Amino acid sequence: MQFGIFTVGDVTIDPTTGRAPSEHERIKAMLAIAQKAEEVGLDVFATGEHHNPPFVPSSPTTMLGYIAARTEKLILSTSTTLITTNDPVKIAEDFAMLQHVADGRVDLMMGRGNTGPVYPWFGKDIRDGIDLAIENYALLRRLWDEDVVTWKGKFRTPLQSFTSTPRPLDGVAPFVWHGSIRSPEIAEQAAYYGDGFFHNHIFWPASHTKQMVNLYRQRYAHYGHGTPEQAIVGLGGQVFMRKNSQDAVREFRPYFDNAPVYGHGPSLEEFTSQTPLTVGSPQEVIERTLSFRDYVGDYQRQLFLMDHAGLPLKTVLEQLDLLGEEVVPVLRKEFANKRPANVPDAPTHAARVAEKSEKSEKSNTAESK
């Protein structure tokens, strides 16, 4: 199982100081956070993609390429790649290039995003959102899987004998997760291709997450990729920790109360009772995270949101120390102990290359008989 962090890259005023970081400071902080993630033993760093204030990560591959040069083991991912408004040809080329730069330590998460105005900014119509996601991803798969592509669709100009360059590293495209909070069509798409499904698991109650993951698992099996238990699932989550839970609540409350995404709404206590947000001690985070398995089953990736709502970099780095030293080692052990043998590990480039080689050998053996 993989553990890591994901960022939305918000530039938010720190309510305790009244100061917001500059865009430059925020970008540099995200780079420092990614490098800290590897230092404390996490597996994954993922960044969102946004094209509007107050967010700064408009070019994820630029950021991840920089991080690739300064890390050795960390898997570099997006927590949203806008499959609706990005050109599939550019996605294919950008992420194949990043694969080579990072020696395979790359995957990505397709999503439609949650900012409606982004569609006309890139010449698209939000009413076509689902159709764009389906058509663009179908083309992307072909661009990675086929050396020469001739294609015609509804939303972009046709391609005639086109080759996307560079080709995926080792002939294996980056692993793809499909992220969705509320769209069953996206869970269906992930299942159809046998890709991973990621539920960000932040604003919705457990019952909703369970419903979406179960839909994906059942449809994954329907398309013949394996049993429902073998589907590849990832979850998000939000945590804030201090050694003492009362200290955590006291320190985090002003950030929660003023955060653009959930401030001035339900109280912190109401929100933590109704969603997976956990504010407390490392032990409380461990217990809450282990409980996710009760309603989604065994899963492959757990990402935490930790650098949001105006929290200063120093505080986020302290959170990562707690996560890496006290929380993740226990979670690794407990999840592994409960994991049935038939549940697959989280996908990695090396494992997928080996799988491809094994299939090729079996095919060649069958042909020779």
From TrEMBL:
Instruction: Mention any Pfam family matching this sequence.
Output: Bac_luciferase
- Which parts of the sequence belong to the Luciferase-like domain? 1-294
Ranges annotated as biased composition (Basic and acidic residues): 352-369
**Keyword Calcium part of the UniProt annotation:** no
Q: Where is this region: Disordered?
A: 338-369
Keyword Signal in annotation: no
InterPro entries assigned:
Bact_Lucif_Oxidored, LLM_FMN-dep_put, Luciferase-like_dom, Luciferase-like_sf
UniProt keyword annotations, A-Z: Monooxygenase, Oxidoreductase
The record's annotation in PANTHER family points to: BLR5498 PROTEIN (PTHR30137:SF8), LUCIFERASE-LIKE MONOOXYGENASE (PTHR30137)
Q: Please identify the protein, giving its name as recorded.
A: LLM class flavin-dependent oxidoreductase
Q: Which organism is it from?
A: Streptomyces kunmingensis
